[in-house]
Amino acid sequence: MILIYFIIPVLVFSIWIIARNMELDEDINEEGISKELFKVSLFIYQKIRGKRHISWDQKVRGYLTTLGGSKDLDKATSYYYAQKISIVLLLAFCGSILSLVLYLSGNFDGALKESGQVERYLPGEGQRDVELVAKTEDGTKLGKFHVEVGERKYTKKEADALFEEASSKLEKEILGKNESLEKVNDNLRLIKQIDGYPFEITWNVDDHDICKYDGEIDCSNVSAEGTVITLIATYTYDDHKWEQVIYAKVIPKKLSPAQIIQNDIEELLNTSNEVSRYEGSMELPEKYKEEKLSWSEIKEDNSLLLLLLMLVGGAATFVMKDKELKQKIDDRNAKLIREYPGIVSQIVLYLGAGMTMRNIFSKLSENYASKRKKGAPMSYAYEELTKSTREMKMGKSETAVYEDFGRRCGGQQYTRLSTLLSQNLRKGNSELLKLLSEESEKAFDDRLDLARKAGEEAGTRLLLPMILMLLIVMIIIMIPAYMTF
Fold first, then answer.
1. Which range marks the domain in which residue 65 is found?
2. Same-domain check for residues 443 and 350
3. φ and ψ at residue 134, rounded to 5 degrees
4. Are residues 32 and 104 in the same domain?
5. CA dihedral in degrees (280, 282, 286, 287; nearest 10)?
6. Full DSSP string of 190-214
7. What's the pLDDT score for residue 311?
């Protein structure tokens, strides 16, 4: 069983030995262990893919092609999957190590002995929960059983002996910062339990003006010679009880050297805070009685929580990576749809002025380039239109250019537009202007429908917050009315 947990680490290390000399492009921003893990992931992907296009990566290749983020599609696809595989390997490697530790700890902490006995916890350690499976001699399972094995109990004789030990320690345990019970001027620790002993301890104090139930000492009611108070500790274990009487002499409070230093430095801090309350920062005291002070901040350590969050984040990143890529495509398609009516209306305008379709594409590309130089945002539709213009200038046929334009943009609208333009070239359609005018009107109607639908969806999303606000208002009104009855 233990060998299973070594498979992934050994496999990753073996592949790393083979792939450690792999050369990566300079645009890879991985460093250190991350870079070595990326090499292993890239090696795995290359071996899986080989020289064939894998069917399940066609969608990703299509997304990357549409986004146009890389000139080398194979390399971009390889790096994309290498990043995903590296996340899986990292989680699998860490999971193997943690699982190995958990497996070893579970085996060393087994409750069932070979003799068929379940070992009880020692007194004070609580009950032991054990999951057991009952089988016959031929291996037939009779069922699973949850057993709650209580801790071992002390006998009366053992408890008496423990009481003698505990009672001898209690006087020291309750001292707190006091030197002895003959000189009590600070709070007592009226503990409810002594470590290592099974007793529950309750207290009774004869003078509550001087000593509270929690051991707080009030020296203001103590005479100059001191006042003796009586403390009664009642020990309880199972059905047995024992009592111990303790006498303590409370004297007027005298500060220890450490308390004096503590109070003096706190006073310096309060003074510094008061003096600098109108300033942007508070200056800490530099000296105390000619002694130079140095300060350091006590910080909370959340490193383990950070590790767990990073592991969860790694798993979530791998799952959401494809969704992020798909979201970019959806955003692109939405922008293309929003830009479609404007493009068609401009084509109709220039076509009505007597310009050819080739010149119209060139004119729209020039206008877009001019706007981009002035800081206008990037437009996917005009980027594709500019690309089509360059293709026509390079000698590509207009029919192929229009068809590729519609294919790259996608969607029914751009497909209809490319079909109209290509048919106009093949058939010499004299009614192109009329058809495009109708297409322009239809595009604006579709845009209004999309805007109306988006408004309805926004209203639906606001419904839940409005209901919650209504409930809050009802609670604010009803609670005071209910409390008056």
1. 4-108
2. yes
3. -95, 130
4. yes
5. 140
6. --S--TT---EEEEEES-TTTB-TT
7. 75
- The H or E element spanning position 291 is strand 291-292
Task: Find the angle CA(326)-CA(330)-CA(333) to the nearest 5 degrees.
Answer: 140
| Residue 188, in any domain of the structure | yes
Q: Is residue 484 part of a domain?
A: no
Which residue type sits at 230? T
Phi, psi of 137, deg, nearest 5: -65, -30
The type of residue at 63 is Y
Contact (CB, 8 A) for 24 and 32: no
Close Cβ partners of 128 (under 8 Å, ≥ 6 residues apart): 111, 118, 119, 120, 121, 148, 149, 150, 151
Q: How far is CA 107 from the centre of its chain?
A: 31
Tokens of 409: 């943009």
User: Into how many domains does the chain fold?
Assistant: 3
Radius of gyration in angstroms for the set of CA atoms belonging to the chain, rounded to a whole number: 40
Question: How far is C-alpha 205 from the geometric centre of its chain's CA atoms?
Answer: 51
Q: Is residue 73 part of a domain?
A: yes
Same-domain pairing of 222 and 340: no
- Do 395 and 453 belong together in one domain? yes
Q: Are residues 161 and 51 in the same domain?
A: no
For residue range 168-220, list pLDDT tens digits in order.
888 888 888 888 888 888 888 888 988 888 889 999 988 888 888 888 888 76
Q: Indicate the average pLDDT of the chain.
A: 80
What is the pTM for the complete model shown?
A: 0.39
According to the model, what pLDDT value does residue 33 have? 76
**CA 167 – CA 189 distance, rounded (Å):** 15
179 inside domain: yes
